[in-house]
Amino acid sequence: MSVLVLLSGTSQVFAAAGDVINNTATIDFIYQGNSLVQESSPSGNTLTGIGNGTPTSFTEDRLINFSVVSADAAAVGVSSSQPAAFLSYTVTNNGNAPQDFLLTAVNTSPSPFAANPDNFDPVSPMQVFVEDGSNTGYLLAEDTEIFIDELAVGATARVYVVADIPVTVVDDAAAVALVAQVAEGGAAGQGAAITNDDNGHISPAGTFSNGAVVVAAGTANTVANTTGLETVFNDPSAVSPEDVDSAAVQDIRANGQHSDTGVFLVQTVAASDVALNKSVTVIDTLGGSDPHAGATLRYQIDVVISGGSNVNNLIISDTVPANTTYVTSSLLLNGIPQTDASNAPIDYSEFNGNDIVVDLSEGGTVSVAPGTLNQITFDVTID
Amino acid sequence: MKKAKLNFKLFFSTMILTFLFSGSALSQDGKIVLTNKVFKQVIKKDKQGKTTYEYIEPGTALPGDVMMYVISFENIGTDPAEGIVINDPVPNNSKYRVGSAAGKNTKITFSIDGGNVFGDPDELVVKDKDGKEWKAKPESYTHIRWIYNKPLAPGEKAEVSFKTKIKGNE
After folding, report:
1. Which residue among A131, A330, A338, B28 is least crowded, i.e. fewest CB within 10 A of its CB?
2. Is the peptide bond before A345 cis (omega within 30 degrees of 0)?
3. Residue of A nearest to B154 (CA)
4. pLDDT band at A10 (very low <50, low <70, confident <90, very high)
5. What are the residue boundaries of the structural domains of chain B, listed by start?
6. Which of A5, A13, A30 has its CB closest to that of B83?
7. Whether the model pTM is above 0.95
8. Residue of B3, B60, B100, B146 to mutate, interface with A, max A Cβ within 10 Å
9. What is the third-level CATH fold of B26-166?
10. Is residue A217 within 8 Å of A210, Cβ to Cβ?
11. In this structure, which topology does domain A272-382 adopt according to CATH?
12. Least CB-CB distance to A25: which of B74, B88, B117?
C-alpha cells in the first residue's frame, strides 16, 4: 500500500523560549457495545468525550548561547599614530530567544598570532560600534550603535572595535578582545544585562557601551527546576587564553559572556622630518654687527620635528667654521648651559675640538616627539 | 492507477470507522483511565563508562532535549474494552524520534498529513516538485497511532510510548 501526500514547503518552527509544549493523546474503544473516545490528562482522565482531557505540558526554557568570533583572518595592518583603526568581529545568537548584547573591548595578551607578540595597547579608551548593514567596514557616519539590539535567534551581527594607534614602530602588535555580554531582548532599546541564570551561573563585572553602562557582577541564584520558564546560560568557554571576559580573566563557560581576540599590527610608520634651521648673528667688538676679526658669531640651530612618529637616536652636530674659534662654554641647549666635556650623564653635549655635538636622544634613551622644538646656540670668534 | 485504487480502499475503511463512532452518542465515564506523562531523557555514564538513560521530570527543557511521552490506559470498568486505538499528535516544537514509538500488543502506524491517513513508515511517501517519490522522514510525522490488538480486561493496564526531540539549531 502506498500513501501519497504532496510535499509542501516545510518550515521548521524553532522552539522558542517560553513556548508551552502540549500533548493530548486520545483513546478510541468499544465498551459494552458503545464506541467511545476519551482524551488523556497528566494525572489520568476518566471522562469520555472530546474536550474533557488536560494537555500534558511543559515550558521551553530560555537558552542563552552565543558566540563571538574575530572576523579578521590575520592581524590587521595599521600605521603608527593612525586614528580610528578597527578590528572586526561577529556575534551570533545561538539561543532560543531574541537577545540584546552589550559590548566592550579589552586589552589582552598574548597575541593569537605568535609571530608578533603583543607589546602595546591602543590609545585608551577604545570604542565599539555595530555595523548598521549599509557598507561593511567601520564608517563613522553610519555605524553608530554601541550595543546589539534585538539579535534574532540564529542571527549574526558585525561589530567593530575602533581605536587610535599610538606612536609605534613596525611589527609592534596589540591584541584586543571583544567581549559580548547577554542582555534582555524583546523590546527595542538597550536591555539590562542578564548577569545570572537560574542554575547558579553568574557574569563578571564590566563596563560596556563605550563607558556608558557599568554592570556589577551577577549574584548566584538557583531556582528549582519547574515546568515554568527558566534561564539557562550555556555560552561556550574561551577558545584561547587571550579570549578574556569583561574582568580581563579568561572567559569561562556559562557566564553570559563570550569573547574573541583580534590584533592590530603596525606595518608602516609615517616618515618624520627633522628640520634644522640655522641662523647667525654678528656681535662685533664695538657693539655693531660688522664681522671683523675678533667679532663674535652667535649660531642658533632650531631642531624641529614634524610628521607622524617619534625620532630616535637624534644627534645634532655642527663643525665650527674655518677661520673661527669656538668660545669656550658658550654651548646652550634650550638656554641651558652645556659643558664642553663629554661627560654624560651630566649633560649630553660636548665640543670635541672640531664640532659641537648635542645628543638629543640622551644616549639613545629619549625619542623626540613630533612638534618638539630644540634650540642649540654656540659662539665663535673670527680669527 | 494501482495507487489510486489502494487509496480508495483506505478511504473506504476510514468511512466505516467514522460511521461506527458516530453511531454512539452515549457517554460512559469511569471505565478507562488515560494518563499521559512526559519525561526528559538524561544521559549519564556510570563508573565503567557505560551510558545509561534516566527519565526525569522536565524541569529544564531546552532545544535539542529528548523527551519521552508515556501514555497508559487502564480498564477500571467491569467489562472488557475492545477495539482500542490510541492516537497522539507529535507535540508542537517537537520532532518525532525515529524508531521510538513502542507498545506491547500494538500495531504502530504514523501519519504525515495531520492525522488523515496512517501507514507503516515504508508506506509514507512524499513527492517533490518534480513528482519524484521519497520515503517520508520520521521527523515529518505528525501523528502516531497504536492499534491495541486484543481486548483490555477489567483491572488490566497497558502503556505505549514515544520520544521527541525539541526543535533547535542542532
Report:
1. B28
2. yes
3. A31
4. very low
5. 26-166
6. A30
7. no
8. B60
9. Immunoglobulin-like (2.60.40)
10. no
11. Immunoglobulin-like (2.60.40)
12. B88
